[in-house]
Amino acid sequence: MLESTLSRPTYARIDLDNLAFNIRSVRRFIGEHVRCMAMLKANGYGHGAVECSRRLEREGVEWFAVATLEEALELRGSGVSKPILCLGGFYPGQEMAGLSAQVTPALFSIESAERIDKAASERGKPAAVHIKIDTGMGRVGVPFGQIGEFADRLRALGNLKAEALMTHFAAADDLNEDQFTADQMAKFDQAVTAFRDRGIRPAFIDLANSPGAVARPASRADMVRLGGVLYGLSGDVLPPGIAKPELRPVLSLHTQIAQIKRIAAGTSIGYRRTFVATRESLIGTIPIGYGDGFCRSLAGRGRAIVNGCIVPVIGRVSMDWVTLDLTAVPDASEGDAVILIGSDGASSISAEDVAAAAGTISYEITCGLSARVPRRCVGEETA
Ligand SMILES: *Cc1c(COP(=O)(O)O)cnc(C)c1O
User: Fold this and answer.
1) What whole-number distance in Å separates Cα of residue 248 and Cα of residue 179?
2) Which of 74, 78, 242, 363 has the most C-beta neighbours closer than 10 Å?
3) Within a domain: residue 277?
4) Which among 19, 50, 56, 16 has a CA at the least distance from the CA of 378?
5) Could you give the residue numbers annotated as active site?
6) Residue 5 pLDDT level (bands cut at 50, 70, 90)
7) How far is the CA of 332 from the centre of ligand 1 (A)?
8) Domain contains 339
9) What is residue 192's predicted lDDT score, i.e. its pLDDT?
10) Cα(47) to centroid of ligand 1, in Å?
């Protein structure tokens, strides 16, 4: 269903076969015995959490993770039956809804442990929780120095089942930070021992994000939490120069030329007249802008593929329109396809390329595509 007569021609194409290719490729690389938790937070890094979860479920992914309870409930509402970890935990008032939907909270404070224990007791059913240890990321997690006290207080709560102990790497994608990552792993080992010494023996030990899972075999443990590699965003997430699984981009971004103008030298284009033609030029306007998540910082830096040629974004990026210099593509016509992320023959623009031009990482580019950009899934399941 790539065509829809009701929508403007701007859309993100989500190749679910490539998503399946990536999970198979990563599994082969890290070992089939390691459980995989697929990260679906922020609408699956902008790829469409529901559609991605369906395909990943069929590919045998054991666990899903999201950032918020709202995201977890969306997946449950769409029929996901695999376990779902809510990385942000449950905020006051969310406990019952979360537990009733069989969402597993990450736990990083005694305060939330007590709330969830109370809700579990009211339900008459123990609640599984994953305990997050801060070994160096410094965001959320039980502070390393308070592990013993935390474990003692947790043990006193009768309605919680510690199903996993987890931690998160701060710099596993940077080989210069190898020592810091090794220290995080050592601290985590000590934390696991401290919990075991107090009789708390979780079924899963998990540490690794994408770069950990690929670059740090010792961090694979029972389960790895995979985000970037699933979506094929390896350029921004894996250290350069290491052995890695083959990955394919899942998302491409498409539109069409809405209007073409031939302008004389000296003519300006767009807000504040930042582009002034130095020669007679062909300008194509495309229906996408920062309101769609096409960053305003791409003015004068972004690129597009038209008829197999790479052309520059010129002038300001506005909310709904972007202008391209098509002078090098004299045969371009209104209605021609334009690729903003993706490839056509030898010409290719990756999400990582767009991110570099915009001064960010590919995750922010794909996450940032707004709800105005329809995600059109292709692949076996949708055929
Ligand atoms: C987002 C996230 C991951 C996945 O990170 P990638 O680098 O995309 O693989 C893993 N663990 C936690 C806690 C996360 O928040």
Assistant:
1) 30
2) 363
3) yes
4) 16
5) 41, 271
6) confident
7) 42
8) yes
9) 96
10) 15
Tell whether 199 and 316 lie within a shared domain.
no
For 160, the domain range is: 34-230
Nearest CA-CA partner of 250 in 94, 77, 78, 56? 56
- Show the ligand 1 pocket: residues with CB < 6 angstroms: 39, 41, 87, 168, 209-210, 225-228, 237
Domain assignment present for residue 235? The answer is no
What's the rounded Cα separation, in Å, for the pair 58 and 60? 5
Q: How far, in Å, CA of 132 to CA of 109, rounded? A: 9
**Domain final residue, candidates 195, 230, 265:** 230
pLDDT in tens, 154-191: 999 999 999 999 999 999 999 999 999 999 999 999 99
The C-alpha angle with vertex 115 and arms to 114 and 116, in degrees rounded to 5, equals: 95
Mean pLDDT of 66-90: 98
Q: Specify burial of residue 209 (Cβ count, 10 A radius: 0-12, 13-18, 19+).
A: buried
- pLDDT at position 1 is 46
Question: Do the domain assignments include residue 12?
Answer: no
Instruction: Return the CATH number at 299.
Output: 2.40.37.10
Mean pLDDT of the chain: 96
Residues 285 and 202: their CA atoms lie apart, in Å, by: 57
- Is the pLDDT assigned to residue 224 strictly greater than 60? yes
Mean pLDDT of 24-28: 98
Q: pLDDT tens digits, residue range 285-336?
A: 999 999 999 999 999 999 999 999 999 999 999 999 999 999 999 999 999 9
CA 210 / ligand 1 centre spacing (Å): 7
Predicted TM-score (pTM) of the model is 0.95
Q: How far is CA 56 from CA 68, 140, 184, 303, 381, in A?
A: 20, 27, 30, 32, 11
